[in-house]
Amino acid sequence: MKLNHKEISTLGELKKTGYQTKSIRDELRDNLRDKIKSGEDTFTGVWGYENSVIPELERAILSRHNINLLGLRGQAKTRLARLMVNLLDEWIPVIEGSEINDDPLKPMSRFATELIKEKGDKTPIAWLHRSDRFYEKLATPDVTVADLIGDVDPIKAANLKLSYADDRVIHFGMIPRANRCIFVINELPDLQARIQVSLFNILEEGDIQIRGFKLRLPLDIQFVFTANPEDYTNRGSIVTPLKDRIGSQILTHYPDDISTARKITEQEANLDGRQSDFVYVPDTAKDLLEQISFEARNSEYVDAKSGVSARTSITAFENLLSTAERRALLTGADKTSVRLSDFLGVIPAITGKIELVYEGEQEGADGVAAILIDDAVKTLFNNYFPKINKLERKDAETPYDDLLHWFFQGEGFELLDDFTDAEYKRTLDSIPELNALVKEHQPDVSKADTYFLKELLLWGLVAHKKLNKHRFSEGYQFKDLYGSYISGL
Asked: Which of 166, 204, 337, 468 sits 20 to 30 Å CA-CA off 255?
């Protein structure tokens, strides 16, 4: 039933409308049913979960379950919980002045019952918007029962001249104050076991105990927990009786493909509008950026149990545009395009997001980030150019022979960081064999993307150990793999 909240301000007026109380889980369930029937997206802006996580989450809501979202970091667990707010009714009535959002037709607190007893149908009603019905708490070791459930307030007792035996001295914690709301506890395993125990009765029986006061408060709360599987062994665990009281545990995951990962990155990247106009990003560069995270999740140097957050690609994308923007500003250009050499600027965004195993620590965070970029280039190379077999006959002909011969006969060339766009293009265009390869195998590529592909071809040959690439302070040098040994340099 949709009520005009602006016209109803007393309990009597509310009763006249025929309003009936509905639990928060019934609200979520009914509104979800309507959305499914009408074909509306329930969780907009969450990509890659359409056939996995979202159907499971919808089933849990239809079943009126408390929910645990279990997955590695950066898998949109908290975002899913926050989007559940959109399934609540837009407005609900509460007793005005109630600390725990008392339902006018089913008051629980002493304050609400006494107020209704005193004023009857003239009891004032307030309206709570769904945007105010979301509570969130990060589980940290210093969280106490008093924070979550409540405690006796000696200041209140002194001001009101009440005995500690009077339940009016109670100061309610976050959970009672979240009555008729969605309450999220993030990183549940980080909550100390004795604190987790305090949730048992709230989840199952609905009553709470505070300093000897046993209050029968049938709290109406939709609980959503988030947890990282690594936490079960390293930092703590979810105690078994609490897990038993959580209706549905839903496993989240990282994007399965590059196109989904790109949607997430482009949606979440915090860009200055001027950057988007100033810096052109080739599609191949966007794919390469996402491929770095895919390589990291499978790398022998990266701790797979910790995961590689989607935030890795998001912050790397921001850094990539900033690197190209800074370069263009220094050269006085009005516009520029991302170069593969600009990926050097994404390394700081990668190093802080990955946990390394022992072998990775030996390589160093910067070294591992550089390896991941090279691995991503190697993987993406095969999507654009003929595959280079690891084992091939010494005299076997390959499509790259002419280009490799060009490097063997010359001294290679340099791509400097401070090249203007004109110098950068002129340098790459100076190699006929490079131009021919790109034209032959990518004839339909746009002119704006051609130069990035030329760099990708060179980096790919380096990754396959066909050329040598050397980084120096001003830029990159590409040379024949064995030329330096033959020339004695």
From this structure: 337
